[in-house]
Here is the input.
Amino acid sequence: AQSVTQPDIHITVSEGASLELRCNYSYGATPYLFWYVQSPGQGLQLLLKYFSGDTLVQGIKGFEAEFKRSQSSFNLRKPSVHWSDAAEYFCAVGSGNTGKLIFGQGTTLQVKP
Amino acid sequence: DTEVTQTPKHLVMGMTNKKSLKCEQHMGHRAMYWYKQKAKKPPELMFVYSYEKLSINESVPSRFSPECPNSSLLNLHLHALQPEDSALYLCASSQGSVGYTFGSGTRLTVV
Here is the structure.
């Protein structure tokens, strides 16, 4: 069965520090992978996605993610975090047949001044 | 137009009320979705419409009734809801898994 695991429920980093949010997936075929960000009371904003090709994907707001098939991972990174990055981050895998997205449990990012 | 528009943004309803949530997109996407999200939890799929036909119902109670009048519109009719149905209801559209776009949601409170 398809699944997504985000091992870190809550992460706190200092402003200006680097960030890595972990995501592991279980999927039988080549996955469609996504990272979304959600601010309190808001909808989901797509940060980046991976379908095929270059395994290092660039997204909005200075985020990038690397697809590693051997590790079944799709970790999100940012070299220097801003206070406005504090939010909930969701990793998701898409089913190509149904379009259904399966989400991880999310990681709450807190940014210290 | 690259947006999914949901109305209303906020809704408070009594347990005996009937209300509807609306979702609209003009991106030509042929799949549309309803997700439910409780606080501090990931979105959970409720329904999938593909080419205006219901293709997935994730065992949602019948007090939630989806409707897809045309390829741009998706409604969710609500009747006799319970307080535990209070949540953020998200609509999304996609062309397969490509170009998946979420609306900003309707915050529903059942009193």
